[in-house]
Amino acid sequence: MKIILLHGLYMHGVTMQPLAKRLTKAGHQVLNLSYKTVKPDLEKMFAAMDAFIDGEDAAIVAHSMGGVMARTYLEFGSSMSLHVKKVITLGTPHKGSKVAEFFQNIGVGDAMFRRATQYLMPKETTPCWTSQAELYSIAGNLAIGIAPLLLDDKVSDGTVLLEETKIEGMTSHEVFPVTHTTLILFKRVSDRVIEILG
């Protein structure tokens, strides 16, 4: 199966390289796509995804903001996006990020996130998963990071609240004892990703 990897905010495709190698070794064809997270060029990004899929069955594995980009791609609705059968998100704030909202409220959000702000802010209405692709949301609950400092005792992976990784319409939701960044490095998580992809 063709697999598209999408990294998270302030990251680069190099952060997804260990997972890309494991997926390639498991027999998948992988596009490890880098994009400018604070200034995403959706036209360029989606064109690269369409060209890679090229009419074949595909899946998207995405970390953090990458999962929001995956949902945006599927909602855009190109003919190639209909070939995406599964989406696996790792620590994605499907409901928006309370951490990002905190920085927005104190007046530094736009400077920190730029265009990414529109994808990271909690919405007035709770979003739901509307794609025909199955969504597997994987989250962490080891709260080492900024979230516990800003958001009291809410369960998180240190960056994203556990509750934010849930969305109506998802196929499954699983939790591992890892931090936000470790989600893309932890062997048990990558084993589960490979298992879901089949």
Secondary structure tally: strands: 6
Radius of gyration: 16 Å
Helix content: 25-40%
Task: Please tell me the overall pLDDT.
Answer: 89
- Kindly, what is the distance between the CA atoms of the first and last residues, rounded to a whole number of angstroms? 9 Å
Secondary-structure content class: alpha/beta
Order of helices and strands: EHEHEHEHHHEHEH
Largest sheet: 6 strands, parallel
Bulk shape:
globular
Query: What is the count of DSSP helices, taking H or I runs of 4+ residues?
Result: 8
User: What oligomerization state is this entry in?
Assistant: single chain
Spatial strand sequence of the major β-sheet: 2-1-3-4-5-6
How are the SSEs ordered, and which strands pair?
Layout: E1 2-6, H1 17-25, E2 29-33, H2 42-53, E3 58-63, H3 65-76, E4 84-90, H4 98-105, H5 109-113, H6 117-120, E5 134-140, H7 147-150, E6 172-176, H8 187-197
Parallel strand pairs: 1-2, 1-3, 3-4, 4-5, 5-6
Brief sketch in words of this structure:
With 198 residues, this protein is an alpha/beta fold. Helix content is 33%, strand content 18%.
Report on this model:
With 198 residues, this protein is α/β, with parallel strands linked by helices. It has helices at 17-25, 42-53, 65-76, 98-105, 109-113, 117-120, 147-150, 187-197, and strands at residues 2-6, 29-33, 58-63, 84-90, 134-140, 172-176. It is built from eight helices and six strands. Strands 2-1-3-4-5-6 form a six-stranded parallel beta sheet, with helices on both faces. The longest helix is centred in the first third of the chain and has 12 residues, at 42-53.
